[in-house]
Design brief:
Layout lengths: L7 H4 L4 H10 L1 E6 L7 E9 L10 E2 L1 H10 L3 E8 L6 E9 L11 H4 L9
Antiparallel strand pairs: 1-2, 2-3, 2-4, 4-5
């Protein structure tokens, strides 16, 4: 766009649904829009997966993602940056969440140095 090969209308094309999702489910950032440079972009997290059934394709907050990650085996998250000022949007990240993607808890240093159950120190 800065080179003049595409117009702003080609890159600033957020749908009304995406703009609404940014307003109600988005997460504010401290990153300025690379197009208008006036507004801060908002991250919107969309979820997809077979276990979601009718919820697939919906925008969710990070708090809701954490709850879903504890209850579902696996689902895909797509993070889209949105500028509500000029309608610029861009897919910035995608990842898997769910019980299938948890890491095993690590032993803490305190647990490793705790006294033995026999009572000897």
């Amino acid at each position: 766009m800065y080179a003049g090969k595409v117009g702003t209308s080609e890159v600033c094309d957020a749908s009304p649904y995406l703009k609404s999702a940014a307003r109600f489910h988005g997460e504010a950032t401290e990153k300025r829009c690379p197009i208008c440079r006036r507004e801060f972009v908002i991250n919107v997290h969309y979820i997809y997966g077979d276990q979601l059934k009718n919820s697939a394709g919906q925008a969710r907050s990070r708090a809701e993602l954490a709850v879903l990650a504890d209850t579902l085996g696996e689902f895909q998250v797509y993070v889209v940056e949105v500028c509500r000022g000029c309608d610029w949007n861009h897919l910035v990240e995608q990842y898997l969440l769910g019980r299938a993607h948890r890491t095993a808890p690590q032993l803490s240093a305190a647990a490793a140095t705790a006294p033995s159950p026999t009572g000897t120190v």
